[in-house]
Amino acid sequence: MRDFLTSKIRIFSAALTATALLAACSSEEETQSQSQRGSWGSRELPVTTAQIERAPLIDSIKSVGTARARQSVTLYPESAGVVTFAKLAPDVSVAQGEVLLKLDDRDQVLAVRQAEVELAEAKRMLQRYISLNMTEANIPQSTIDTAQSNVDLAEIRLSQARVELSRRVVTAPFSGRIGITDVEIGDRVDTSTVVTTLDDRSVLLVDFTVPESFIGKIVTGLKVDARQWESPDDNTQGEIIAVDSRVDSATRAFRARAAIDNSSDSLRPGMAFEIDASISKGEYLSVPELAVQWGADGPYVWSATGDRATRSPVEMVRRVDGRMLIRGDVLEGQRVILEGIQSVRPGMKINDLSSSQISAKPKTDDVTRSSQGS
Length: 374
Fold this sequence. Notes:
The protein has 374 residues and is of the alpha+beta class. It folds into four domains: 39-57 and 283-362, Beta Barrel (conserved putative lor/sdh protein from methanococcus maripaludis s2 fold); 62-69 and 199-282, Elongation Factor Tu (Ef-tu), domain 3 (Beta Barrel), CATH 2.40.30.170; 77-103 and 169-194, CATH 2.40.50.100; 105-167, Orthogonal Bundle (Helix Hairpins). The chain has helices at residues 2-39, 106-134, 141-166, 353-360, 364-373; strands at residues 45-51, 53-75, 81-86, 93-94, 99-103, 169-171, 176-178, 188-189, 196-211, 223-228, 235-243, 253-261, 272-288, 292-295, 298-305, 308-320, 323-328, 335-339, 350-352. The strands form two sheets. The chain has a six-stranded antiparallel β-barrel. Strands 6-5-3-8 form a four-stranded antiparallel β-sheet, with no helix packed on it. Helix 2 (106-134) runs antiparallel to helix 3 (141-166). It is elongated, with a radius of gyration of 47 Å.
């Protein structure tokens, strides 16, 4: 009987001990869970961060076009004849109105002199009739009218003769440089013979096409970069001087024209250029790509508010050179988490290693003072 009671007492004591241990474990787990649910306790998550910056959004349009001279013309003689004078050395600069070529004009010079004589005679006859009438010679008005008509016709014939004489000369219509020619003194030419070409290449014009979505953004006065197709390292500044008034319905693009200064005369018409036009679309907040995460409700970043992590939804704008342009409830100068981001939770205490490294770097003035002191 005594052994039975002793056994019962031992079983009861063991049960009480187990119950106490379970209660203690349960209390410890509940305390730990409450601590984590609150502010993640005193645990600090090491992270690295980067500062939110502000950067411009720039759209770049690249197109290829062929350069041509600001003014360019192929010169032909206006009449046929034998060349008696030629100033046609290749790539020589000539001024506007300068004589480049003359044809044999002996017949035309004589025609002008004859017309001048006829005009003088017609004027003398008219003046004689008028003078006689002043002395009451009573010259009929019809005779005077005929004399006046003869004067007018003589003036027309003189003008025609002078025009024919001017057609024996080829002059430069504008200042520029002449091209290679095969015409020489003594050659017989006609109106289909190419005398030479003349280019004013002080400014080159490049026509290029632009997608219709850039209407209103490509405007006159906009600065562009022009790179030679064969020498991409040689950049030249240009300016938009004309924009077409319509969009091509087949290509959905319109034509623009850029002017490139060539006062150094290092470029030539016919060269191919890549035109690069940059258009600013405003400024946006900029963060590294690693900072942007995606959730069920869209993109977001983890921003550092003091020593705590905050989840901030953002709107994507554009990816530019390894960074993301965003809009959202964050401010320029704030820091966003880059590394350690997988373990971050809202309200978690963080240890920003980037800030520690920045504060640990010696300032230039401190280094200078230290060097001077030593």
